[in-house]
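Usage

Read records sequentially. Each one opens with the input sequence:
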Amino acid sequence: MEYVGSIYRPPSEAHSMIIQVAVGCSHNKCTFCGSFKDKKFFIKDMKTIKADIDEAASYNNSFDKVFLADGDVLILPMEKLLEIMNYIHKKSPQVTRIGVYGNTKAILKKTVSELKELKDAGLGIVYQGIESGNKEVLRRVKKGAFPHKQKETADKIKSAGILLSQTVLLGLGGVELSREHAIDTGKHLGDMSPDYASALTVIIEPHTELYQQMRAGKFKLPDKFGLLTELKLMLENMDVKNDCFFASNHASNYLPIKALLPKEKQKAIALLDNVISSGDMSILRPEHMRAL
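and closes with the structure output:
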């Protein structure tokens, strides 16, 4: 595989074949993200992409899912996306699902009809980093998309019949906007009602703008139990319209939680209440075991 730089994929794509079709992220301005700061965004040429697909096909059908990297594959033109997906199925007919990251700008460039066409070609799931439902938090972290546009993209993906997985970040509002961030993000997720939702916890990387803000005293991360309080507030305000599998079991989190909403919502909230009330640090994931 001709990978360029570090490759990132969602945890649920751990057993998928990773085909890198674009390098980096077309936005790449978020203050908290250092994943693609060392890459200038570009789309690989089709010859290179097909060579990787050919190599993947030589692995004796050992996979049934494919993830197209890097951070913003949906920005590619329709004809190129369709050519890639059709070639994957030609070379590896056992593939049942293709997944991609999709930022708000990229999704907005596609019509519902185009998204349905991509679904018919094998696109089964889109992973979207929402980060927050609070407009001020999104402005401060330079996300490049406000809640009403995120909702528009969620509606598009769901209308096309594609699974939607959305990610938010605990702690992103800092101590100053912690409560507003948590409540608004919960309401926002409930309004969009994705098929999957996950809450990660901000880990401030040294080479990011958010790190510089923290060093300058302009940003302060809530403490461990403050972050769990955010998670509790988020769940309390997350009233989904359909079944949604919610998880906060990523390695960045202090307390792993899985819940099928709305059925298991109160159970998850009660668990968080008990842990927060206990103040027992030994229950939480040790700092040295947390990772991106």
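Summary fields computed downstream for this record:
- The chain has a mean pLDDT of 95.
- Residues 178-192 form the longest helix (15 residues).
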